[in-house]
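Batch queue: ligand-bound targets. Current item pairs a single chain with zinc ion. No template structures supplied; prediction is de novo from sequence plus SMILES. Inputs echoed for audit trail.
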Amino acid sequence: MQHGGQAHNGDPQSRKHPQPYRKHSDQANGIGGTGTGATSYATVPTEYSAYPTFKSGVRSLIEEKTMAAVTWQGKGAVALREVDVPHVTNAEDIVIRTTGTSLCHADMHIYRGDVFDLKLGDIMGHEAVGQVVQLGSAVKNLQLGDRVCCSFALGCGSCEGCQRGETGRICDKAGHNGYLGKLYGERHSSLEGHAHFSSGGIAGCQAQYVRIPCAENNVLRVPNGVSDETALFLSDVAVSAYHAVRDVGLQSGNTVLIIGSGPVGQLVAQWVQVFGARRIVLVDSIQSRLDWAKQKLGPAIEATNSDSKTDCPHGFSQKMHELEPHGFDICFELAELAIPRRLGIGSLQKAMKTLSAGHGITHPLNECILAARNGGRVSIIADYAGQLGNFNMGLLTEKGVKLYGHGQPPVQRYWQEILEEYIMPGRFDPTKVLTHRYALEELPKLYDAMYNRKLFEESKDKPILKVFVQTKFSAEPSAGMPPVTKAHASNGAPHA
Ligand SMILES: [Zn+2]
Ligand SMILES: [Zn+2]
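Prediction returned. Tokens below.
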């Protein structure tokens, strides 16, 4: 999923506190909604409830009928609910028992209601590791009990796009579950846990069990010796960072600027380090993130706090010019400071004005173009939606800078090589951005805290980057990994 390094402030009028755990029967009676937009959405139990179990040749270890899942309950509200345990609905499906999931920046877009076609009760989440506990008869490369990691981008595996290794971007069947599905009747490819918009409401994996369609293509078996914490990153973020670095054509000896030091920004920094970048400058306005990156990636990483008058006495642009007078070979934009929210042009202009007044970055994309050398490249990993005003087109054309959008990463093309060539030999360690571990039951509070940037305030010394979310099926934390911690709900006052 596309990622931003900065949390984005939401609309305080549209949020409510998550509600406590409530039985599914209550939800079906229509009293589950908590957000202001609740009445305009239909209530659906789960996306798979409507489909009968595909019984022929199915092998199963599941005994439970219901499970706990984090469900969308209106703008700015998620809640833990008891829902049906998923089941195989096609011969190509599997169901896994979740042993680890996570919270991604992309989940916050859904939480805020930025995504179209959300329905009450949609199960959140798109990163998971787990154990195969139900197996459709057509799945030949997996066994019950196998440990697997699930791709957030689901593809059929057999269309021309998937055969070319373009799943996630060009699967011919991706998206058929939503509006297109109504036209063509397909219902098994798209993004996991991304509501009903172009993804058919495939249930997410912030749940004790998750159904994976077209499983032969959409899970990777995790070898013994690779921890759940490590494997979890192959669902999305480690692969997203790798894809951007490969796609933009990074070469050994390049100079690199990375604006946005969230988990994906730091994973990009680690990848370009692995691939031999000559100079890596990492930028953020949160000092604890920069300190964390230097501690984990070593002193060769140069960190600049864009809001610091010490770091940038004459402004950010001037500082970048002083660092690389001829410009950086490649700049990565992960800051998402100026995302035009849906119909949010007014707030964008306000944000631009506020940002221009201080020492901070006026517009991360323009800053990247400005900081790049003539003929250099800019990689956009931040999450943009719709049109963008104030884009410096003149600067782009004058300098001959190449702008790269990367699309959804083709996870299935890369994950095996990342695992075998980089992770297992110890050349790349995605857990360097794993900072916290929480129980699934704590996730609604974590959404709230992330939304209100509460955690950023509480974590001055230790930033919150990537979290591992455990379920009742998880093993104890692996050696050296974060122990489980409690999440604290915010006091409800959005970060100003
Ligand atoms: Zn993600
Ligand atoms: Zn396909």
